Amino acid sequence: MRTQAFLCVVLFIGGYIAAPLSEEKDDKIVIPRQIFDDNFIKCKAKHDIVDVMVPLNAFTLKTNIGFDSDSKPDMTVFLVEADLKNGKRVDKGLYLYKNDEVKMVLPNGRAAAASFDDEKIVYFGASDGLYVYNVDSKSADKYGKFSDSIIDIATNIDGKHIYILSEDHKLYNVTNEGADKELLQDVEDAQEIVLDDSGNIYFYDSNKDVFIKNADGIIKVQGLPEGRKSLNLVNPPFIMEESVPLMIDNALYVIKANGTAEATSLEFSANAKPTAYGADIFPVQY
Ligand SMILES: *[C@@H]1O[C@H](CO)[C@@H](O)[C@H](O)[C@H]1NC(C)=O
Ligand SMILES: *[C@@H]1O[C@H](CO)[C@@H](O)[C@H](O)[C@H]1NC(C)=O
Fold first, then answer.
1. How far apart are CA 230 and CA 59, in angstroms?
2. SS3 at position 76
3. N or C: which end of the chain has fewer CB atoms below 10 A?
4. Distance in Å, CA 212 to ligand 2 centroid
5. Ligand 1 atom 6: residue of nearest CA
6. Which pLDDT score, from 0 to 100, does residue 231 have?
7. Residues 120-172: pLDDT tens digits?
8. 123 within 8 A of 133, measured Cβ to Cβ
9. Mutation to probe ligand 2, out of 255, 258, 262 (largest number of atoms < 8 A from CB)
10. 173 ligand 1 Cβ < 6 A
């Protein structure tokens, strides 16, 4: 049993993306390990944290305004834990992290997605289908009638459109409030998905090529670094317009809806690289 503590929440990504271009924009900003120790929320986990979701809606908006660095933010964060062994993933549950406490919400939960608006809608994907977060009981209620094994989930701004990625890497659009699902046939071999503020769907395949599904079809993202080993799509903070953050190995890129990729100046040193990312609008120093 592993008892090591893992860094799990990275709250400054949105701040860097929002930063106006400065004269130093060509200098790389490398995030050293120490930066996590004082400034950012950490939590302890028995297993690797494979997904972090900070719902950018009513759960967090209120608490962010007027946040000053001395007070502890009352953040709501959903974490997914798993053991990663030889590239295989063994699910260890989906948890709610709030007020420094961690609560198990869904033992077989694998991914979470939230609406961006002022409703508190959070969906979970699990090994036996789709769930919706019940704010009052802090638990998960089954949503829809599917029992698909879901590996990732995304929703749009108002939480009305839900997309689920099944274990066999097929993407479905959940329709009629969970009664039906529609296969998106042009999306193939998707490994991970996120949506931008306009509802464009970003995904990458097992060849580590990145694609965007928009109203007209699929476009392939250009300008990614050669020889990339690992990709991780991050849910965009709501200040990002028609673009999403993508971690490529240790460096943060921004993928735009027109299919271009841009390196940011943000990079993690090898020992500071978290196992999962969340983004938020916390103020940061430049
Ligand atoms: C998913 O379904 C909704 C209707 O429930 C529709 O408005 C939306 O365009 C669909 N998304 C895609 C990508 O087809
Ligand atoms: C893509 O969009 C960005 C900003 O939205 C713009 O700066 C860039 O020139 C566009 N690139 C192409 C090839 O259209």
1. 31
2. strand
3. N
4. 14
5. 161
6. 92
7. 789 999 999 999 999 899 999 999 988 999 999 999 988 999 999 999 999 99
8. yes
9. 258
10. yes
Q: From atom 1 of ligand 1, which residue's Cα is the shortest distance away?
A: 173
First to last CA, the chain: 40
From the CA of 243, give the closest atom in ligand 2. Answer: 5
Kindly report, residue by residue over 184-216, the tens digit of the pLDDT.
Answer: 999 999 999 999 999 999 999 999 999 999 999
d(CA 157, CA 154): 10
**Whole-angstrom Cα distance, residue 265 to residue 24?**
9
- pLDDT tens digits, residue range 207-248? 999 999 999 999 999 999 999 998 988 877 666 789 998 989
- CB distance 266 to 227 below 8 Å: no
- The 8 Å CB, 24+ separation contacts for 217-221 are 217/186, 218/186, 218/187, 219/258, 219/259, 220/259, 221/255, 221/259, 221/260, 221/261
* Residue range 62-91: mean pLDDT, rounded: 63
Q: Quick check: 129 and 148 in contact, CB under 8 A?
A: yes
- Give the number of other Cβ atoms within 10 Å of residue 198's Cβ: 13
Going by alpha carbons, the residue nearest to atom 11 of ligand 1 is 173
Residue 63 and residue 75 in contact, taking contact as beta carbons nearer than 8 Å? yes
Task: Say how many Å lie between the CA of residue 208 and the centre of ligand 2.
Answer: 22
